[in-house]
Amino acid sequence: MWDYNDKVMDHFLHPRNVGEVENPDGVAQVGNITCGDALKLSFKLDKNNRIAEVKFQTFGCASAIASSSALTELVKGMTLEDAEKVTNKDIVNILGDLPEAKLHCSVMGMEALQAAIANYRGEKGGAAGKNEHEGRIVCKCFSVTDTKIRQLALANNLHTVEEITDYCKAGGACGSCLNEIQGILDGLWKEKKTESESSKRAEFMRLPLIQRVLKVQEIIDTEVKPMLAQDGGSIELLDMKDNVVVVKLTGRCAACPSAGVTLKSGVEAILRDCLFPEIVVESR
Amino acid sequence: MDDKKLIYLDNNATTAVAPEVFETMRPYFCERYGNPSSIHTFGGSVTADIENARAAVARLLGADWKDRHGKFTEIIFTGCGTESDNAAIMSALSACPRKRKVVMSMVEHPAVLSMGKELEQRGYPVSYVPVDSNGRLDLARYEEMIDADTAVVSIMWANNETGNIYPVEQCAEIAHRYGALFHTDAVQAIGKIPCNLAASRIDMLSLSGHKLHAPKGVGALYVRRGTRFHPTQIGGHQERGRRAGTENVASIIGLGKAAELALAALERENTYVRDLRDRLERGICGNIPQAEVLGDPEHRLPNTTLIGFEAVEGESILMRMDRLGICASSGSACTTGSLEPSHVLRAMGVPDTLAHSAIRFSLSTYNTPEEIAFVIREMPGIIAWLRKLSPFWKK
Prior knowledge:
The structure holds 2 protein chains of 2 kinds.
Chain A: H1 6-13, E1 26-32, E2 37-45, E3 51-59, H2 62-75, H3 80-84, H4 88-95, H5 103-120, H6 126-133, E4 137-139, E5 144-145, H7 146-156, H8 161-168, H9 178-206, H10 209-229, E6 233-241, E7 244-251, H11 252-255, H12 259-274, E8 280-283
Parallel strand pairs in A: 7-8
Antiparallel strand pairs in A: 1-2, 2-3, 4-5, 6-7
Helix pairs in contact in A: 1-2, 2-4, 2-5, 4-5, 5-6, 5-8, 7-9, 10-12
Chain B: E1 7-8, H1 19-25, H2 27-30, H3 41-61, E2 75-78, H4 81-95, E3 101-105, H5 110-121, E4 126-129, H6 139-145, E5 150-154, H7 168-177, E6 181-185, E7 204-208, E8 219-223, H8 249-287, E9 291-294, E10 304-309, H9 314-323, E11 326-327, E12 329-330, H10 333-336, H11 343-347, H12 352-355, E13 358-362, H13 369-389
Parallel strand pairs in B: 1-11, 3-4, 3-5, 5-6, 6-7
Antiparallel strand pairs in B: 2-8, 7-8, 9-10, 10-13, 12-13
């Protein structure tokens, strides 16, 4: 039993804009019967290039029909430029919410729209269609490529295989590609992390020296000193050059045999965490 | 849901507890709550009631053998059909450790099929017998798969989705030819078709209470006398050490009563219920174009029909039926939470267009001709409405 909200049920029981637009400007069909759902979308533009008429036909479950219906309501009256920016999240927002395992229905809506717009522009397949052919098939059961998995993961901040399955079914049948999908996600988010870290470093280095010193001093005062104070020690900032921060441990820390450990796994770790991972702390 | 009338056509999923069954169970909660293992009369006297329930189940199964104390010891009460299935297969493997092969059909219920996958993981060779497009077992392939290393064969008596009845006697005979034990998951068959284990070659048989108007949480496993049995659940001496754990007294009493009722109603099941089912099937297929009965038309449970509706999806159909208070099931991917259509329909090679659209109606003795007429009246509108929405429907 699926827990559909009233809005979803309303769109399922009273779907808007059912059928096919006569002499459409753009038309596309995505999904297929093997996978258990398919959506055919057609639209006609007015003289201002806005979507004047849009209709759908859907084979699928209640949430697939509701997602299609919501999509047509959403894009009616939009310019193509705006319609192109519609995502599956916009469709879910109209419906209020969808069960997690049904999110792929909203993704199908987005893909149908993109494909229909591409059809109007005379491109083959469009963004969604391109994905189908671009990249390497990872999930054979539902013909999902690595490119599509990466795109969905980035657009919806997906980190687990279960989330990917909810959004595009990949991995939901025989399960033989589950490890590969996890590998793609791990690689993707690791890459993202590295990217954001290197951009953090560049940002920090662009600051004038005085700003950089103040920033490090602030971290030392608010994060490092309280930690050392617990053991009766303290710290002073002496110098800075590029990614090297020179400090002096004082109080009890000065004579402590574990001073080296404190410096590296304590002070350096905090600074790396707050600034960027290439920070090196040295003592004098 | 409250004031809407309910038309329950999902009896292969579960059944209503019969009012007579409920009344028989009632005293065992607050009044006769004693433990049958106790020495005092208050508890100990419950033992006799459990033995009467066992006798009723034995009679339903036609398992008339009694030990020298007059007890039907071939029947073991369990917690459910799945437990019975698991216990039977595991027992066969541990009772005969030098044989390691297991054979089952591709269309078994997950209670058996998942056991097969698990055994494969543990290193046992498991073979799965294919079926044809009507879901009939490939007996030639079946025999090829069995050899002297086969410890146990498990073939369901009747399929939960299609209602297909399998030739279990013939299968048991073939299994015995190679010295393998034969188990059947008879959860869907018992109470719907006659069973006479006294004249049968079946070694072990599983049944479930809630499929025959007893409550959920009770089942039974038949183990033919002389069959070595290794328990999976270890503990006290209950069920002669073959299924430890304090007896689920009230439910066992309920299962006994349900077995008695089922035996008495067997003829009604095969006349009245069969007639309703046939009427429903004719009514639906006669009034809806491209609606097709799936399964084996000749060997089928009297209460079940599985119908595919071209170009529409099962969950949508069920949701529209639900609005009218009609309960049924679907082999469609979307209803199960899994993304694949039913493994049974896949094994039968049913085209995806039909597999996603198949609706299973399973009736019981409590259904009425008025209910069936109502469903026949409403189904064409539901299907036509959904087909209007479907890009695959060609008028």
